[in-house]
Each structure stands twice: as C-alpha cells, then as structure tokens.
Amino acid sequence: MSWIYLLIAAVFEIAFALGTNATRGFTRLWPSVFTLLAAAGGIFTLSLALRTLDVGVGYTIWTGIGSIGTVVLGALIYKEKITAPKLVAFASIIAGALVLRLASGA
C-alpha cells in the first residue's frame, strides 16, 4: 500500500508544480488554492508512504516521479521543449528510482 500512497503523492507533486506556474506568483486566487491543496495532499500522502518506506527511498522516488511528470506535462501544457539532454536525465532518474526500489527489498 505504501507504493500506492507514493504514486498518489507524486501525482499531487506534479499538480503542485504545474499549479505553481499557473498562480503567477500566487497573485491568482483559484490556481493558488489549487496549488496549496495539491501541496498539502502530496505531503500528506507522502507521509503515509513513509510509514513503511525508508525516507531516502520514498522521497527520492517521489521527487523523481514528480520531476519527470512535471517536465512531460509542462511540455504538453506550457509548450516547454524536451531536449536530448533532458531525455538522458529522465532515463537516469528512472534508472535510479528502479535501483532504489529494488534495493529497498519491496
């Protein structure tokens, strides 16, 4: 169940990051409310995942999935460019997350 919580937390993390861009410095009400709720949801579900996962593993995977999801959705929503170096970085993050998961014995 902790891995499910971690995936939910990562979705909240992606929503938080994308929402932060939409707030325009927290000057827009509804994007700001959405962003704060997403941040709270992410931290809450991450805390549930960390009941049984090592904090180093859980946090690293949470931020890794959040980073990749944010870059991919940022490209789709905000038309940000995905370059070859970014693709290499994504592959490195994914490989690191897989190794951490295997090393955690889960």
Gross morphology:
flat
Cα gyration radius (Å): 15 Å
- Mean pLDDT reading: 93
Structural class: mainly alpha
Low-pLDDT regions: none
Order of H and E elements = HHHH
Let me know the number of strands.
0
Q: Percent of residues in helical segments?
A: over 70%
Strand content is under 5%
Family: Belongs to the drug/metabolite transporter (DMT) superfamily. Small multidrug resistance (SMR) (TC 2.A.7.1) family. Mmr subfamily.
Organism: Nocardia terrae
InterPro entries: EmrE-like (IPR037185), Small_drug/metabolite_transptr (IPR000390), Small_multidrug_res (IPR045324)
GO cellular component, one term: plasma membrane
What does this structure look like?
The chain has helices at residues 2-23, 29-49, 55-78, 84-103. Helix 1 runs antiparallel to helix 2 (29-49), helix 1 packs across helix 3 (55-78) and helix 3 (55-78) runs antiparallel to helix 4 (84-103). The longest helix has 24 residues, at 55-78. The protein is built from 4 helices and no strands. Helix content is 82%, strand content 0%. The model has no long low-confidence stretch (mean pLDDT 93). It has one domain. The chain is an all-alpha fold and 106 residues long. The protein starts with a helix and ends with a helix. InterPro entries: EmrE-like, Small_drug/metabolite_transptr, Small_multidrug_res. It comes from Nocardia terrae.
